[in-house]
Specification:
By secondary structure, the protein is mainly beta. The protein is built from 2 helices and 17 strands.
């Protein structure tokens, strides 16, 4: 165990030597990988190669949700018989944080770190067991060629409930990721440069990257062929679960959910090998399409339909010591309605059908009715950028052009001075006193004129 811990730490250090690439919220993650698993010594399994795939979506430019499943067929090391057929198939869901950077070569690269939950399942011969635990992840990504990236990842799965003791498996993955952005590549929506977070109550529909978190209660209607065998058939009954989904566009959403239902055994008589209760659980991943409508309690309402894949597990209840179990895979469909009654909260009612083609003795079809609440967080504003401003004085150039400047104003016009009186320059021409003087005909004076002595006064 100590040797494997040191190996994991060494590989983790290598991955941390380089800082996943930031993406627009609502960007889809599709990936495939090869995998090398180092099993805990308590499992008696030989380290082996396997393969798997992942799917997820970005909530913000640096945060994404993803789920993955893988398959490995290791050799048995637990003693005779040595030819036991072993199948190891973990399923996990995790939240990842990405830290991008641009390398000196110009390649956009980075690292990511995160964690979540894992379901580890083992089929050894005809026996099957599974348990739940925690998962840590550390990875490195180098983008090349548009939306394609090389991804290296190290995972540690800790299972606290394994027998005879807790177990820790290390998995190392290498593969390719594809990051299509449906909103901008297929719908013509313009992504923003920074991907700002906008609450759903600011828009009539969920924006790309909007996260839906919800819980629900479920009533399951079980097929007569469901369960372990003819002696162990789960009856209809109640259960509960949770969901998480990310909107890729205002209409398309990728969503995963899980539920657990402790059901009574439907077999009336108690034959040998009969279990009193059967634990029924499912894990589904679907692509949903949403039809918004203006609900009577708010505008954040919609119908939804979707389909995808489901894994169904049947485990013996607490009344059985060795807890045998079985599982199978199939298709899942969903139809439902959201009724918004608060800006970021909606009542959700769904009908689910799970078809399992490889059940024993025949295919099974299970139905479920669900009701619960959904909470909506985040979302990226996709705004078409405004056209650049043109120059106010010359519409043929932009406002940012250095030649965009106001023209030189003409010199001010100085009004001419007012005209002066031609008869008296001391007054204006408009003065009422500006009039021609009265002319005196001096030749008409014929009588003598007498003045006072030494004065200009004229005497009578």
């Amino acid at each position: 165990m100590l040797r494997r811990s040191w190996t994991f730490c060494s590989m983790a250090a290598l991955l941390l030597a380089a800082p996943a690439v930031a993406q627009q919220p609502g960007t889809l993650i599709l990936g495939g990988f090869g995998q090398y698993t180092m099993f805990d010594d308590n499992l008696n399994l030989k380290d082996a190669f396997g393969y798997g795939g992942r799917v997820g979506a970005f909530i913000s430019p640096n945060i994404f949700l993803e789920a993955e499943g893988s398959y490995t067929a290791p050799d048995w090391e637990g003693g005779a018989p040595l030819d036991r057929d072993v199948k190891y198939g973990p399923i996990s869901a995790r939240l990842m944080f990405a830290f991008p950077f641009t390398a000196m070569t110009g390649v956009t690269a980075g690292f990511q770190v995160g964690g979540g939950a894992v379901l580890s399942s083992y089929r050894v011969g005809n026996g099957y067991t599974y348990n739940y635990g925690a998962e840590g992840a550390l990875g490195f990504t180098a983008a090349f060629g548009g939306f394609t990236a090389l991804r290296l990842q190290a995972l540690v799965d800790y299972m606290p409930t394994s027998e005879p003791d807790a177990t820790m498996n290390f998995r190392f993955q290498a593969g390719l990721d594809f990051w299509p952005d449906p909103a901008s590549q297929w719908m013509g929506m313009s992504p923003t440069a920074s991907g700002p977070v906008v609450w759903w109550d600011d828009t009539p529909q969920p924006l790309p990257g909007t996260l839906e978190l919800g819980g629900f209660v479920q009533y399951s209607f079980m097929d007569d062929n469901a369960g372990f065998s003819a002696n162990n058939r789960p009856d209809d009954g109640l259960g509960y679960g949770g969901r998480a989904g990310v909107f890729l566009t205002p209409n398309w959403q990728i969503e995963g959910d899980g539920q657990w239902s402790p059901l009574d055994n439907a077999v009336a008589t108690p034959p040998t090998g009969r279990f009193e209760t059967i634990d029924y659980s499912t894990f589904a991943l679907r692509l949903n399409y949403n039809f918004p409508f203006a609900g009577f309690l708010g505008s954040n309402s919609s119908f939804l339909v979707g389909g995808g894949a489901v894994r169904t597990n049947y485990g013996a209840g607490d009344d059985v010591s060795n807890r045998p179990a079985t599982y199978n895979y199939g298709a899942s469909g969903i139809a439902g309605v959201r009724i918004g009654f608060a800006p970021r909260v909606a009542l959700r009612i769904d009908g689910v059908v799970d078809y399992m083609p490889n059940s024993s003795p025949d295919a099974s079809l299970n139905y479920a009715a669900r009701a619960g609440l959904s909470l909506f967080l985040g979302g990226a504003s996709r705004v078409v950028p405004e056209p650049p401003a043109v120059c106010a004085w010359n519409s043929s150039i932009l406002a940012s052009d250095p030649n965009c400047r106001a023209p030189t104003p003409p010199p001010p016009v100085v009004p001419p001075p007012p005209a002066r009186c031609v008869y008296n320059n001391a007054i204006l021409a408009t003065d009422p006193n500006c009039r021609a003087p009265v002319a005196i005909d001096t030749t008409a004076i014929t009588a003598p004129i007498y003045f006072d002595f030494d004065k200009s006064d004229i005497r009578p």
